[in-house]
Amino acid sequence: MTGHSLRETAAVALSLLDLTNLKDDCTPAQIEALCARAQSPYGNTAAICIWPRFVAQARGILGVDHAVKIATVVNFPGGDMEAADVAAEAREAIADGADEIDLVIPYRAFLAGDEQAVADMVTAVRAECKGHVLLKTILETGEIKDTTLIRRASELAIEAGSDFIKTSTGKVAVNATLEAADIMLRAIRASGRKVGFKPAGGIGSVSDAALYLSLAETIMAPDWAMPSTFRFGASSLLDDILNVLAGGESKTASSGY
Fold first, then answer.
1. What predicted TM-score, i.e. pTM, was given to this entire model?
2. φ and ψ at 19, to 5 degrees?
3. Active site residue 166
4. What is the DSSP secondary-structure string of 82-146?
5. One-character DSSP codes across 181-245
6. Which residue of the set 99, 198, 208, 240 is catalytic?
7. What CATH number is associated with residue 155?
8. For the segment 138-180, what is each residue's pLDDT rounded down to a tens digit?
9. Is residue 252 assigned to a domain?
10. 102 is catalytic
11. 1 in any annotated domain
12. Catalytic (active site) residue 198
């Protein structure tokens, strides 16, 4: 971020963080710890991002209308469920108290040429996200790979009503990259809609976060990034944020084109 110190960047990144535990062996005790960690001495993260089976527990811990939002994942991570089943999954999670739904598009069908599958999936889940429930749509850019197709997936997700578009599940070999972020942010800008962006997977340091924030500032506008327009999906980033806010150095940036 232009003109911002590393500590200022860390404070911004904290406010934009979806603190994540999507480990297959996640336990209720770990969810309790995650809810506590999301409320740091320096401020709250934007959200926690957890498996649907833990949403009711997290809502019980955080209570109603907590500043830390509860995000959960559907059609995750493979993206190959039926739209009606995914809509039902989202409906149940929202009933349990989810504030935000992170939906994986059927990216394999999309790669096989089926754009309609993407539109139908996003539309079906969008219909469940009533009121203030945010829909964050995961493209799985590391599997799509092709820049033209990443752009097209972004457009389809935006046109079908996504509130955010997100790079990755964090469950594949290649997750968030600056190249994919560039394509997705430009698609958001071209759409003229208020759509947010969420890089996820592999962002482990404030130095990494600064690269994405700088890119968003360049493509969108200075100070565009706020919790309603930008999130980081990460499990380890909070450690580095807290270290920097306590006066330490950030780990070396690892992101790149």
1. 0.96
2. -70, 120
3. yes
4. -HHHHHHHHHHHHHHT-SEEEEE--HHHHHTT-HHHHHHHHHHHHTT--TT-EEEEE--HHHH--
5. HHHHHHHHHHHTS--EEE-BSS--SHHHHHHHHHHHHHHT-TT--STTTB-EEESSHHHHHHHHH
6. 198
7. 3.20.20.70
8. 999 999 999 999 999 999 999 999 999 999 999 999 999 999 9
9. no
10. yes
11. no
12. yes
